Amino acid sequence: MTSKKSQKSLVELRINGETIEVAFAPHKTLLEVLREDLALTGTKHGCELGECGTCAVLVDGLPVLSCLVLGLEAEGREVTTIEGMATAAGLHPLQDAFADLGAAQCGYCSPAFLLVAKELLEVNPSPNRDEIREALSGNLCRCTGYIKIYEAVELAAARMRGEAVEPATESIYGFEV
Amino acid sequence: MNTIGKPISRVDGKLKVTGSARYSAEFDMPGLCYAVLVQSTIPAGRIAGMDDSLARKAAGVLAVLTPENAQRLPGAEKRLSLLQDNQVYYNGQPVAVVVAEKLEEAHHAASLIKIRYSVSAPKLDFVAGFPSSHPGNHNGEPGDMSWGDVDGALKDSDIKIDQVYTTPIHHHNPMEPHAAIAQWNGDELTVHESAQDISGHRAKLAKLFGVQESNVRLICLFVGGGFGCKGPLWSHVPLAAMAARQVNRPVKIVLERPQMFGPVGARPRTHQRLTVGATREGKLTAIRHEVHAHTSVIEDYLESSAFPTRVMYGCPNVSTIHRIVDLNLGTPTYTRAPGVATGTYALEVAMDELAYKLNMDPLQLRLLNYTENDPQTKLPFTGKHLRDCYTRAAERFGWSNRTREPRSMRDGSQLIGWGVATETYPANRRPASALVRFKPDGRVLVATGTHEIGNGIYTIMIQTAADALNVSPDLIDAQLGDTALPPAPITAGSMTVASVTPAIQTAAERVRTRLLQMAVADSGSPVHDASVDEVDFKDGLIFRKLSPNRSEKLGDFIARNGGQPIEGIAHVEPDETLKQKFASHSFGAVFAEVSVDPDLGPTRVRRVTAVYDVGKVLNEKTARSQFIGGIVWGIGLALHEDSHMDARTGRIVNENLADYHVPVNADIGEIDVSAIDIADTHLNPLGARGIGEIGITGTAAAVANAIYHATGKRIRDLPITPQKLIA
Amino acid sequence: MIPRSFEYSAPGTLDEAVALLQKLGSDAKILSGGQSLIPMMKLRLASPPHIVDINRIPGLDYITEKDGFLRIGALVRESDLERSELVRSRFPILVDTTSVIADPLVRNQATVCGNLAHGDPANDHPATMLALGAIVVAVGPRGERDVPVENFFPALFTTALEADEILREIKIPIPPPSTGGAYLKLERKVGDYATAGVAVQITLNNSGACTAAAGIGLTNVGFTPIKAVKAEAFVKGKQLDQAAVKQASEIAAGESHPVDDIRGPADYKRDLVRVLTARAIVRALERVKGGV
């Protein structure tokens, strides 16, 4: 069946497990629908051209760039944003690890990194450093230099596997050890 | 309480990982509408005509601001493009603003505006501008400074290096684009802005609009990265305020990524000639560092690349010279380690060239010319442990296993190279104010108008107050990013911690003393009639030192005393006489290993080891992040970042993140950072010198030197791209 | 950054989609992955009045082997290729190719067929499909037709598709035994378009010589994707020893037509084609022998 839309019309979106009705013009991407129409500002606006990864959300479980997906394309699909990452039980282990280790520095790129990493750990619970690098290679961070982000993903993965791990004792006086 | 120096987790971590940290574009308010910039498409000339009739008629449009109709501002200045006249000084200059109900409507209407230009011949040729270049200064420091007899010493030098090093235009590209929401209430202006200097922006906005500073309030709770570009006030912010006044509603403006390549600053292009003389034994006899850098035609900005040459090595004859070339480009500005990042690249590559000419280990050459005093003034440093940095970094890196000859190290088909460089950054400190408040609920508030830009300052504020008050960090809240709070300096120049923490300490002392004075005077208090020296406050309890059981909770005390908070406010100025007694700089040593594909040219930085002397490290977690982040910027400077200007139109061709290459995670190998943790208490009571910028300094040179070691090719023009290595 | 407004249709069948295209002609643009189209629309390099979103059409996301061909449907995403066991085991060259396209986020949405239909010489699949001798299946109001990939790219950003046709499927001949292929690309950094890229597919006969099936495709060194026919002709019947590889790669470099741009000067890119061709041939030969 063909659906046809030119003006604003009411669209049903599934976002973070809830059904939301929202009206928006067809030429808006999911990013603007989330940020401007739904005030879900946890999804960040970075380059709008698919070059920085900052706007990543999960659509049907897969990370995609919300700036390169029309809002209308998301109709009937399950969208997960950072606002839906924590559950009633608390933060996702990745969120805990990012916060604990300081992998979120200025924090602007963090929501996207977290969602991409979440999907990675769902398909690969024990990624090595190269696999983490590869999975996160579409996300830019201008602050951390990436290393802390890898460390946080590794820590969260270990915790999710049920391993009793503590964050490595952080020291910048390495030569004293 | 002793939390300083501990790896305390960021207090704002949870907000950031849940998407709840609110950045400046993320505030909603009734009536909020959207503004979009229209930018010039010529580099120089004037607007001959503008047809905005279609835009005005477009759906949702509330206003179109043009040079024709825009409000005339009492305090307008040439450096900002606020539609006060028809002049065009650079490509990408704001020339109109469209305001509409919806973002997409503003965007569409902006595309309907037709502009006719009368084009003038632009100044875009950097090198051709050298003859008409002019001197300048940087933060009040003169661009030219010399000592000794450089010409004479060069003539008598056994060994001489004379080379030109060039660096391209860079754009900061924080992940969060510039954004502002402006709202007027009568003559009162409130602006949510992604800014590194809310106090400075408030003062400038007040002047522009001819209102009292107290009528302007800037708010910025989180900055999504800045690296310098959010330091100065740029045109889009007053333009949003002008639009808000015109439509009498709050107006939001968010720059698009391509708009980040022009009207909001850049690291200027540099051309640096270094002439270095030395004895056959390797003692430096003379250094001349002549810098040309560009600025705009509307404002002078000096990239102070030769400044590090004034402090780095013991040398009796030094000349540092800067000349500015005016071009029809957007005004450049501070970019992470302004001057020092580009200058250490040139100086430290020249040192490597000298080492090869002397047939000497490059680390040995640096140790041979080590200076314990500021080479120009002969003043001692407030603290300098660079020798330890060299030794420890060399050991961690394994430098002694290096073979000297270029192209002598391989891994399979890959050429391997190791390089070293020295890092430095001046220790800065400015006046700052803070308040510490005991609240009726027993909690403590620490507040100052500084900025959380990823530097972890929320956390460091709490650590500082916790230690000063003997209160657990859990009981303390921090507030910042609001000009309604006591003012703090610009968050730049690696000086936030050094400036803000002394103010917090003093405010904490004051509120503590005040509390204890009130307590001993209060007949209902268990410490009544004791002297202030006999009582103490710790972990939320007021008690007698000799009988700690006689105590009272802070909240109970406040409740009994009228329920009003107790507050200490402090304004603290740095000791200006310090400069007469000491020089104050951070230093570090950085080593890099690269691999180069000899047939295709790409360089990979496999590992970097750096050891820093930055005084006391206040928080290991946030510090390590800052160092690593800085090093990654250094890698970008060495290998990737390069804004290409179209020579005819003055437009940046690669004005997007696909073609402007910031390092991605796959570019980054292992990075090992450590610090020599010796407090520098001459500078401030905590002994911290700031850490945000030193990581980028030296790194580009270490990588460039490693590439030379790998390939035998000395590339003196950054970035070192594959084609430069293959050519 | 927002595209110009447009009408949006999401047909539920291919027939509906074709009927729409027939009605709208060049006013319509097909949206599949949208990872190239939407940026172009945002930059106003394309402003189609009508978007026909084919993502709601069921049954187009297949990767199957049938009648001697590997068949890739119009809605197969790049990341589906990476995940497909069939592709991983039989066509490592496709895994080479897809894994260097943009980044994982783009690959979750971008389609393989779209990578061809966009007609961009900087895209990676065209060179690989040229090397593999693939066939494009186009469906339109006049029914289906097969277009060999070598005829699919007549000019810059132009394909052999008519305005009312949809690229429904890519067919790749199942290679005979003793076949190996590889795609190599030099990019300035991860996620970038190729500075240059080379795809090589080689089949050896019983005596170890290269058969006529050899394919060599070049990425982003001309106005269209380039089939290096002279280099292909040269390797035919040859034992690919070091000297032959060297000569073939020099011939391939001679067939490239790069221009100076932000990714480097033309001479440099021509030299890259030479180095990459040699390396791709060597990798393909390794794969003939069962290497990965």
Describe the fold and architecture.
The complex is a heterotrimer of chains A (177), B (727) and C (292). Chain A is an alpha+beta fold and 177 residues long. Chain A has helices at residues 30-37, 93-101, 110-123, 129-135, 147-160, and strands at residues 3-5, 9-15, 18-24, 56-59, 62-65, 78-80. Chain B has 3 domains: 33-121 and 175-225 and 230-260, Aldehyde Oxidoreductase, domain 4 (2-Layer Sandwich), CATH 3.30.365; 270-428 and 579-726, Aldehyde Oxidoreductase, domain 4, CATH 3.30.365; 430-573, Aldehyde oxidase/xanthine dehydrogenase, molybdopterin binding domain (Aldehyde Oxidoreductase, domain 4), CATH 3.30.365.10. The mean pLDDT of chain B is 95. In chain C, strand 9 (179-187) and strand 10 (194-203) form a beta hairpin. Chains in contact: A-B, A-C, B-C. Chains A and B meet through helix 1, helix 2, helix 3 and helix 5 of A and helix 1, helix 9, helix 14 and strand 29 of B. Strand 1 (3-5) of chain A pairs antiparallel with strand 1 (7-10) of chain C.
**Can you tell me the CATH topology of the largest domain in chain B?**
Aldehyde Oxidoreductase, domain 4
Q: DSSP strand (E) fraction of chain A?
A: 15-25%
First-residue to last-residue Cα separation of chain B: 60 Å
- The name of the CATH architecture of the largest domain in chain A is Roll
CATH topology of the largest domain in chain A: Ubiquitin-like (UB roll)
The assigned structural class of chain B equals alpha+beta
Percent strand of chain B equals 15-25%
Quick one: which chains have the greatest interface? A-B, 66 and 68 residues
Distance between the termini of chain A: 68 Å
CATH superfamily of the largest domain in chain B: Aldehyde oxidase/xanthine dehydrogenase, molybdopterin binding domain
- Order of strands, widest sheet of chain B: 3-5-1-14-11-12-13
The domain tally of chain B reads: 3
- Count of helical stretches of chain B: 16
* Gyration radius from CA atoms of chain A, angstroms: 18 Å
Low-pLDDT runs of chain B: none
CATH homolog superfamily of the largest domain in chain A: Beta-grasp domain
Supply the CATH class of the largest domain in chain A: Alpha Beta
The CATH architecture of the largest domain in chain B would be 2-Layer Sandwich
Basic shape of chain B? globular
